[in-house]
Write a structure and sequence with these properties.
The protein is α/β, with parallel strands linked by helices. 32% of the residues lie in helices and 6% in strands. It is built from 10 helices and 4 strands; from the N terminus they run αβααβααβααααβα. A 4-stranded parallel beta sheet has the order 1-2-3-4. The chain is globular and about 60 Å long. The model has no long low-confidence stretch (mean pLDDT 93).
Length: 378
């Protein structure tokens, strides 16, 4: 009964308020790149003449299918919001790792980058939608999801892919971005009697279970395993005079960190969140997740994410949505730049933290044409 009511309310809300993803006139949006500016990378030669047999010899243009799992940061919740009444709209077409709305000049996203190398790429979200809508495609992210939800989400994603006649599970190379963790610390950790034990016994095991399922059911897959920037971003705003909307939204959307009842444990939860990112990196390096047709790469660009860019003393709150919890469309574009750079950087030498959009945009080269993995980085 409750589930039916929630679904009905969500559909009504989506029809009433959706369409925000089509806006372009706000300081929180990416500045459009002029038509005469070429793509930053030479794309010639970066789709293999023969389909590669190894995930460690995968060029950007070899990716056929793109997908994503995670929470509201992956669903691009509130990315184009201008008021708190719009914070439940999911602008999935703008999502940093799975949105395909527009192109790289209007909306920098990972699919819009990869589409330049392979125009036949599919699976990316097309517009505002919830994950049950067709336009969400292979973006299975769900608001308020935690790490313990990911085994279920992985099964839902594989079912959706296998039912799609466009997907050849054995032949197509797939890129899956898996980011999780924000809600573990915003909404869950303050209700755990032993948070450290919970991280190790529940969250780490859920992550491993999810990756094992993907390894066993999704051949020819590269997984980007990404830590959530949610807590780092919100802590970075402690030095900033934030607008009233932040004070209204954050205690509701992230009660474990901003709720008055749990304020004395705030620094402890921050330390445990940093431990969780180390657990995530450890899991990504487990030998069982590195085979010829499946691999996991820890992409740390969100580590220490901040409203202060690298080497900048002035904050940029336009990276954040109206609620100061989610990313704005500009924030999603900056994040897309970050995940792309990480994919072009060897394991152990990856950059992290936010930087100005397009300030550094790394490219494959004839010497290093492949997306970096654990095996081809050394």
């Amino acid at each position: 009964m409750i589930r039916m009511f929630y679904r009905g309310f969500r559909e009504f809300y989506n029809r009433l308020v959706s369409g925000t993803g089509d806006r372009h006139d706000s300081e929180r949006f990416q500045k459009r790149v002029p038509h005469n500016v070429p793509f930053p990378c030479d794309i010639r030669g970066f789709r293999s003449q023969k389909v590669p047999k190894s995930v460690h010899q995968l060029r950007p243009g070899d990716i056929d299918v793109i997908a994503a799992m995670g929470d509201s940061l992956t669903s691009a919740t509130a990315a184009n919001s201008v008021g708190l009444w719009e914070v439940l709209v999911e602008n999935r077409g703008l999502s940093w790792c799975i949105g395909g709305q527009g192109n790289w000049k209007s909306h920098l996203t990972l699919p819009n980058i990869l589409k330049v190398f392979n125009p036949n790429l599919f699976g990316y979200s097309l517009s505002d939608s919830y994950n049950v809508h067709k336009t969400a495609q292979f973006n299975i992210a769900e608001n308020i999801a935690t790490t313990s939800d990911m085994p279920y989400n992985a099964r839902a994603l594989m079912n959706r892919m296998k039912q799609d006649p466009r997907v050849d599970m054995k032949r197509h190379w797939k890129l899956l971005t898996f980011m999780i963790g924000g809600n573990d610390f915003c909404s869950d950790i303050c209700y755990q009697s032993n948070a450290t034990l919970w991280l190790n016994d529940v969250q780490e095991k859920s992550m491993i279970e999810t990756l094992r399922y993907l390894r066993d059911t999704s051949p020819r897959t590269l997984v980007n395993l990404v830590p959530s920037p949610l807590i780092s971003l919100m802590f970075s705003m402690d030095r900033v005079n934030t607008p009233l909307t932040c004070y209204l939204a954050r205690p509701i959307e992230c009660s474990c960190i901003f709720g008055q009842k749990f304020s004395e444990n705030r620094e402890l939860f921050r330390k445990l969140e940093r431990k969780f990112t180390r657990i995530m990196e450890h899991v990504s390096n487990l030998p069982e997740f590195h085979t010829d047709d499946f691999t996991v790469v820890y992409q740390p660009f969100f580590k220490d994410a901040s409203v202060f860019y690298r080497n900048d003393s002035q904050p940029d709150l336009t990276l954040m949505a109206i609620d100061c919890v989610h990313l704005s469309q500009k924030g999603h574009a900056v994040s897309a730049n970050g995940i792309w750079n990480n994919m072009m950087e060897p394991v152990g030498k990856k950059s992290y933290g936010f930087d100005h959009l397009f300030k550094t945009f790394k490219c494959p080269s004839l010497r290093n044409p492949y997306i970096y993995t654990y095996y081809n980085s050394f």
